[in-house]
Amino acid sequence: MGYGMSRLEDEYYEPEGQDTDGSSSVQVNDDFSKLHNDIFHMTRMRSGLSESIYKSIGTNRGIISMAKLLSGREVDCSGKGMFSSGDRAFVRGRYVPMNGPEFLDMMDSRAYVSQFSADGTLFVAGFQGSRIRIYDVDRGWIVHKDIHARSLRWTISDVSLSPDQRYLVYSSLAPIIHIVNVGNAARESYANVTDIHDGLDFSQHEDVQYAFGIFSVKFSSDGRELVAGSNDESIYVYDLHANKLTLRLPAHTSDVNTVAFADESGHLIYSGSDDTLCKVWDRRCLSTGQAAGVLTGHLHGITHIDSRGDGRSFISNGKDQAIKLWDIRKMMSNADSCADGAPSWDYRYSRYPKHHKQLKHPHDQSLATYRGHSVLRTLIRCYFSPAYSTGQKYIYTGSYDSNVYIYDVRIASCETERASNGNSRL
Questions:
Q1: How far apart are CA 155 and CA 172, in angstroms?
Q2: Beta-carbon contacts of residue 362 (< 8 Å; ≥ 6 apart)
Q3: Which helix (H) or strand (E) holds 284?
Q4: How many other CB atoms sit within 10 Å of the CB of residue 139?
Q5: What is the rounded end-to-end Cα distance, in angstroms, of the chain?
Q6: N or C terminus of the chain: which is more exposed, having fewer CB within 10 Å?
C-alpha cells in the first residue's frame, strides 16, 4: 500500500486551541496547562513559521498563503536566503497523504509489522508467511531486499533496522532474534542459503526457566545494543559487540508488548505491557530491580510505544482504543494496574464496546489522549512523524478498519479541555 502526497488548502488557517466538531478527538488532561506545556510549545516552534517570515511577508498570523511564502523566500524577504528548519517543517507538514491508496505489492500472507527507516528512504514490511520486504521509497518503491526468514513461530512479531541501515533484526514468538546483513547488493536473502541469519539466543540467562516469545525489538541509536520485550513479562538487553545478553529485567505482571530506548544515551528504556502500565527504566540504577517510574492512564493493554527522542516524552497505543502522550516528569515511583477494575474484554475476538470509550482511568497521568482509530486483533503501532520534515507535528497510527490515522499533536492546547477532529483518516 502507498499513498500519494496531496496539498492542503492553499489558504491555510492554523487554529489556536479552538474546538471543532468531529467523530474523533484529542483530550487534554486537567493539570497539563499548569505544569507541562513545553511539549506542545516546542512542537509549535519546530513545525511553525519563524517570526522573521511573518514580518517579511506582512501577513496576519494564522492565515498563510503558500504562494506568498515561496515568493518571499525567492526574493529573500527574511534576509536569511532560505527557510529555517521550522519554516521547512511548516511547508512539508502541509503535504500529508490524502489520495490513494495505490497498489504497490501483494503477498500471500498478512503484514503485521511495517515502518519507515529513520530518514524515510526505506520502508520495511514483515509478513506472517516468513517474509520481510524492504522497499526503496526514493526509487519508486521497488523491492530493495526480499528476506526469507527462518525459525518462526506463527509470525514475524517485530523488525528493526540499524541506524546505519546495514543490518535488520527480526523476532517471532520464540526466544531467538535473527540479524541479517541488508547492506549487501543481493536482492534475495534466504536464511542460511544466500545469507547468514545469525540467531541471537535471548534465553541464555541464569534466570530464564522456560521458553518464551519476543513481541518487540529495537536497536539502540548507536547500533550497539538491542532491547526486547517478551511474553515472560521481561525486558532483555543484548550487546551486539560483545555478542551476549547483558540484562534481563522482570518488568511487568503480564506480556511486555513494546519497548523503546528513550534517547541517544541509551540509559532510559520505556516499556508497555498488557498490565496497562507504562514504565521507565534507568539502567544506571537497577540495583533494586525497580522501575525509575510508572505512568498510568490506559484501561487495557498497551500495544506500542514510540519515543519522541528527547529523553522525557513518548506516545503509547492501547487496546482501550486510545493513543496517549506522556511526560516522564509526571511519573510516580510505583502504581497499581487498573486491569482488575477495567471491564473484561479480549481484543482478539470482539470489537471494543462503545460504552467503554467513555470510561476514564481514575489516576490518568498522560498529557493528552487521541481517539478515533481502532486497535483490534494485533499489536497496532503508532509513531511520531519525522522531526526533520514535520517537526514531529503529527502522530500516525494503523487501525483495524484498514485506514491510517494522522493526529495533529498541536491541536491539544493548554487552554482547552477538548479539541475534536484532531485526525485525518487516509
A1: 6
A2: 338
A3: none
A4: 10
A5: 11
A6: N
What whole-number distance in Å separates Cα of residue 130 and Cα of residue 351? 28
How many Å apart are CA 280 and CA 326, to the nearest integer? 11
Strand (E) or helix (H) holding 222: none
Model confidence over 166-208: pLDDT tens digits?
Answer: 999 999 999 999 999 999 989 999 998 999 999 999 987 666 6
pLDDT tens-place string over residues 72-120 = 677 666 566 667 788 888 888 888 777 778 889 999 999 999 999 989 9
Residue 325 three-state SS: strand
DSSP state of 386: P
Q: What is the DSSP letter of 94?
A: T
Joined grid coordinates for residue 84? 529555517
Could you tell me the sign of the dihedral formed by the alpha carbons of 253, 256, 261, 262, in that order?
negative
CA pair distance 376, 12, nearest whole angstrom: 35
In contact, 155 and 211? CB cutoff 8 Å: no
- For residues 102 and 38, give the distance between their C-alpha atoms in angstroms, rounded to a whole number: 38
Residues 6+ apart with CB under 8 A from 186: 194, 195
Q: Which residue has the cell 479539541?
A: 419
